[in-house]
Each structure stands twice: as C-alpha cells, then as structure tokens.
C-alpha cells in the first residue's frame, strides 16, 4: 500500500521534469529481455519445425514470421522508449478507444473463428489478437485513474464504478468471443491495480465474491468449461479428450529429466502436444532442455522482474509509478499463468508466455511493455 501514499494534483497529471526521459536506459533490463527473446526464437524454431513443414512445406515458416514480428516489435519498443512521456499519456485514451474498436471488430464478420472462438482479426497475411493490447490499454487507464483520483478511490460511486465498469466492458467483449481466460487476466489486472491504488478492502472482497460467483455461473452454464475444469482436476481420467493437452504437456515435462533430451529432440512436438509452439512452448522447453532449462528461464524472468521493481520504485511521480507497475503486471501475469497451465497448476486459459510463445500480437505487446519500462527507467532514481 506504500505505492499509494504519494499524491498528485487532483486536476490530473502534469508533466514534470522527472517525467521527461533524461537519464540512461536500464541496460540490465535490455540484456535480460534480449536473452529471453533469443531463447524464445530458438524454441519456436525447434517446436514449430515439424508442424510448419507439414502445413506450409517450409519448416522455417513460423520461425521466419516470429523473426519479422521481433523486428517490428523492436522498432515499436525503441519508439516507446524514446518518446516524451507526456505524449505517451496524451495517446492513452485514443489507444484505449482503438483497442475497444478492435474488440468490436473481432465480433464482426472480419473476425476469424478458430477452434470455435472468434478472437482474431485476419488481414491478408497476418492476424491480430486484440486481447494482448487490451491488457496494456486497461493497465495504463487504471494507472491514470488510481494516480489522479487518490481522494476518490476509497469511495464507491466515483472510486469503484468507473474502473470496474471499464474492465467489465472489456470482459464482456472477451466473453462474447468467447475468451474466458482473457477475461480472467483482465480481472486480475484490475484487482492488483486496485490493491496498490488504495481501494478499500471491503470493496475488493465484495468484488472477489461477485467475480467468483460470475465465473462459477459461466462454468456451470457452459458444458465445455465444466469439462475443462474436471479435466484439470484429474487430466488422466479423460486423457484422450478434455485432458489430452495437459496430459501431453506433463509427459513432455516428465521425460525431460535434468538436462533434457537436447534441442530438437522433443517427441511430444511430433503432433502429440497441441499448440506446442504457442501456449505450450514451455512444455517443449522442459522436454528438450530439462529442469535446467526451465530453471534458467525462470531465473531470467525473476531477474527481469527485479529490474522492473527497481524501475517502479524509482519513480517520483505517482502516475509514472503506477503505469510502470501496470505494464510489469501484464508481463508477470502472463508468465505466471502460462507456467501454471503448462505444469497443471491452473486450468488451460490460452495465455502466451511472454517473449517465448509464437504469435505476433503476443510478442509485439510484450515488447511494447519493455519499451514503456525503458522509458520509465530513464527517470528512475
């Protein structure tokens, strides 16, 4: 709760000398990000080769596309790192409205339906998943609200309804796709932003109760969600149907041993493990690089989040501090939930591993977060 003690004028954010990037970038953060990105590119190459050759006739197809996404993301990252912060904040509401528009477009005939869900917008040679950018847009909006409305956040009508209503709108559009996992991620962002923003605990407990009741209702009235929950509790009881993906993931992790079977040696990626190069790429990491490789990636993420924490606590302006926390939260929730799903500690949610999973939207959004954190690192004390 110490993050909510420094206040800014109630009239809103005013750029100060501290909020104009003048210092050095956090090169430690850059080094850790580049190491994770390189590991991710190598693992996409390893995990996707067989599938790419079968579907596209080119085993480097997904790797080359991921490399293109990384280059585009790199340009966006450096732009966000260098642009004056008051310009970034002026673009917050246009970005929020743009993401909302993308979510509406996803539900239109322009949306692409894959595996029964309409979560993407397909444009010729590439597709966009608006959820990845919705996370950033919501986190930045909540950071603005919590920092500029400190005298109101403990009230119900003005401190609870606006941020909860905005999050509910995002979640409603996601559930219409349907994307239950995406709605859960946005709800977690709201919870943690309210927690550090100073929202009363009684309101948070009430929100948790309402949220759990709503989630239970969605699970009960949608049979496929109930099957997923049952399969998560005992995946081997339905190993050929609802529990298939988790069972194959556990097989991959179990067969990796301490040092793994070696790069390219995974057997589970041979059409046994669905989404091997996407959401379940960490299962391939566990099989090919073993416990050592999994631990190395976890340590790199831990070090990266330590750098993020230093950047967050180094901000003298409350909006800067909350915004840095928000984009860090986007990365932290993604990494935590992905590992939890792969290891069977949470039901499958379709959450990508930042920097490692294949996907242009996920990689671009993750690199946008790094770009924003680099911008904040230049004013960290």
From TrEMBL:
Its pathway is:
Cell wall biogenesis; peptidoglycan biosynthesis
Task: List the PROSITE patterns hit by this protein, alphabetically.
Answer: FTSW_RODA_SPOVE (PS00428)
Q: What class of enzyme is it?
A: transferase
Membrane topology is: Multi-pass membrane protein
Question: Which GO terms of the cellular component aspect does the record hold?
Answer: cell division site; plasma membrane
The primary location reported for this protein is membrane
Q: Which regions span the lipid bilayer?
A: 27-47, 67-87, 93-111, 123-144, 164-194, 201-221, 289-309, 321-343, 355-376
Keyword terms, alphabetized: Cell cycle, Cell division, Cell membrane, Cell shape, Cell wall biogenesis/degradation, Glycosyltransferase, Membrane, Peptidoglycan synthesis, Transferase, Transmembrane, Transmembrane helix
The UniProt catalytic activity note for this protein reads: [GlcNAc-(1->4)-Mur2Ac(oyl-L-Ala-gamma-D-Glu-L-Lys-D-Ala-D-Ala)](n)-di-trans,octa-cis-undecaprenyl diphosphate + beta-D-GlcNAc-(1->4)-Mur2Ac(oyl-L-Ala-gamma-D-Glu-L-Lys-D-Ala-D-Ala)-di-trans,octa-cis-undecaprenyl diphosphate = [GlcNAc-(1->4)-Mur2Ac(oyl-L-Ala-gamma-D-Glu-L-Lys-D-Ala-D-Ala)](n+1)-di-trans,octa-cis-undecaprenyl diphosphate + di-trans,octa-cis-undecaprenyl diphosphate + H(+)
**Record bears the keyword Protein biosynthesis:** no
InterPro entries from the UniProt entry: Cell_cycle_FtsW-rel_CS, FtsW, FtsW/RodA
Q: Where can this protein be found?
A: Cell membrane
The EC number(s) this enzyme carries: 2.4.99.28
Q: What biological-process GO terms show up in the record?
A: cell division; cell wall organization; peptidoglycan biosynthetic process; regulation of cell shape
Top-level taxon of origin: Bacteria
GO terms for molecular function, please? lipid-linked peptidoglycan transporter activity; peptidoglycan glycosyltransferase activity
**Listed NCBIfam families:** ftsW
What PANTHER family does UniProt report for this protein, alphabetically?
A: CELL CYCLE PROTEIN, PEPTIDOGLYCAN GLYCOSYLTRANSFERASE FTSW-RELATED
Family recorded in the similarity comment: Belongs to the SEDS family. FtsW subfamily.
Name used for this protein in its record: Probable peptidoglycan glycosyltransferase FtsW
